[in-house]
Sequence to fold (413 residues):
Amino acid sequence: MALRLGGLADLDPTAVPLPAGTEVTTRVDRIIDGELRTQGASGRVVGLRDEIVEVLFLDGKRASYLRTEVVPRKLGVARYAQRRAAAWDQLTPCIVLDTIVGSRAWGVSEEGSDEDHRGVFVLPMAWTTGLADPPLDLTSVDGSQSYWEIGKAIRQALRADPNTLEMLFAAPRALDPMGEELIAIRHGFLSQEIYGSFGRYALSQLDRLEHNQRLAEHRVTIIGWLRDDPALELGTAAERLADAARIVAPTRADAVARARDYIKQLYRSMYDQGVIAANDWASLRAVAATELELPRDLRPKNAYNLIRLLDVAIRWLGGEPPEVRVSEALRPTLLSIKRGEMPMPDVMALARELTPRLEVARSGSPLPRHADVEAAERVLRAARAEAARRAVLREPGPWGTDAPAPPEARFDE
Fold:
């Protein structure tokens, strides 16, 4: 038996929150594009508005359902969604630091840009003393607001996690003195670890982007072939791709084998993203005639964030003030990438051009090798002691008299 926050017996699958990305199963029949889609179909949540859930199916078709007409495909997902919603409702008063992050903080927002928030919360003392593990993250249903438990946030900052440092330096707003103490020591989190967390991470993403760029090109080519010839076999497609992509290999057979591997990577990637029903050639052929979305890894957001991270790493490692907002010189380029106006090969070339500057900034960086762990621990202990003090003295507020009741540990039935 597993000790959990609660059992499934009282869980209503038609009522738990469904964050975007949740895999769901339909409970009713629905006519979609003139065809009957029977109940029991599986898909993924891609949008929410009031009680309406927008579902994307494996074949690329979409439909809207009432919330009560879909349920999470896995009970574990339902349990997680219920816990996440409960934690959000109970612990949002315990947020001590709140920051607007993302494009608005970077200075590249446009009309219609989301307003994303990230920050820190401190658990009431009773939540840290029982058997049930307390939540370390709070996330709103729409995903636009995310907060870390203070211990988790500090550990991430000590590793120079880009999202955490952005939260600390993008005009954070303290909602409690415990948050003010964290802001006061934020410069102690700046270290040469930025090279690995910002720079090397961005370069690894660049490698991935280049890989996926190649897959995207193959995807366009192969789907075009399948639309012209729906009966095209995998082996024939591999031979044609070896020629079309001019794959270099010791022998013709090696080139065809490499092309075949590329095709397998393509439909594996599409399967992982929920675009096709199974990880095989037949499933790719089945959706070739449908309208397919731009591959997830090639959307402009991924590319412009990569360039931004490299730029931040170069500036911060070089000793410039830790400013999150992009420079006015770089801003037009980032907006061009964001709008999809700059070809992806040009974006990747720009990233490669920044790499030598990253190495120079690292070699001459005035930043310390590691973050100030002593100051970080002092603030963490002080915050937890303060939460305990308010609880013991039963002071007014979310850590004292108004503290939410902690979850009870019990066995699932």
